[in-house]
Amino acid sequence: MKKPSPKRPRRPAAPLAPSAAPLQQIAPSVKLGRDVKIYGFTNLYGCEIGDDSRIGTFVEVQKGARIGRRCKISSHTFICEGVTIEDEVFIGHNVTFINDMFPQATNPDGSLQTDSDWKCLPTRICRRAAIGSSVTILAGVTVGEGALVGAGSVVTKDVPPQAVVAGNPARVLRVRTPSARATT
Q1: Among residues 18, 46, 12, 54, which one has the least CA distance to residue 30?
Q2: What are the backbone angles phi and psi of residue 117, rounded to the nearest 5°?
Q3: pLDDT at residue number 181
Q4: Fewer beta carbons below 10 Å: N end or C end of the chain?
Q5: What is the pLDDT of residue 18?
Q6: For position 29, what pLDDT does the model report?
Q7: Cα 118 to chain center, whole Å?
Q8: How many CA within 13 A on the CB side of residue 47?
Q9: How far apart (Å, rounded) are the C-alpha atoms in residues 100 and 91?
Q10: Superfamily of 25-102+117-180 according to CATH
Q11: Cα–Cα distance measured from residue 159 to residue 153, given in angstroms and rounded to the nearest whole number
Q12: DSSP 141-182
């Protein structure tokens, strides 16, 4: 019979600042509403997050992005500059927003590009829309109010209000009625 190893005394956890979570990077330029919940391993700078919203683990929200009230942003999501997410929107895990239709590292002369060398195209996710996990949303797109984007879709053009879309590229499968929204 193997002899049990002696128990080591537990080391006390290192104290955190009263409102700090482990490995959060929240810049002073971030505007947070009331009762916003932000989980660890996040990177937020120059953005605005509305009241009662939740930001999951491993989320980055860049400068100029806006998240409305009562939104849920799930883990591993990237929200870039130029994205507006209106109130009561659900964003699933691993959603990626794109803000540049022609990304390049350098100019024709080989010099590194700067902010003045590209155009940020605004993207809008309207009130009560739901975006499934692993969706990619290209620059300049509007997802209409109450729309549902299926997991894994690539959204290349505007999504009508109340539409259910899926695929690559995302296509309208059907339109939900307001009474059916609670069950679909």
Answers
A1: 46
A2: -95, 5
A3: 55
A4: N
A5: 38
A6: 94
A7: 22
A8: 26
A9: 20
A10: Hexapeptide repeat proteins (2.160.10.10)
A11: 12
A12: -EEPTT-EE-TT-EE-S-B-TTEEEETTTTEEEEE--GGGTT
For residues 26 and 20, what is the distance between their CA atoms, to the nearest angstrom? 10
Q: Residue 14: helix, strand or coil by DSSP?
A: coil
107, two tokens: 């100019």
pTM of the model: 0.85
Q: What are phi and psi of 180, to 5 degrees?
A: -85, -15
Which residue reads 């942003």 in tokens?
Answer: 73
The one-letter amino acid at 104: Q
Using pLDDT thresholds of 50, 70 and 90, give the confidence band for residue 12: very low
Strand partners, 155: 137
Handedness of CA 41, 79, 88, 86 (dihedral sign): positive
As given in the structure block, the two tokens for residue 38 are 């932000």
φ/ψ of 174, rounded to 5, equals -170, 175
Dist. CA 6–CA 139, nearest whole Å: 59
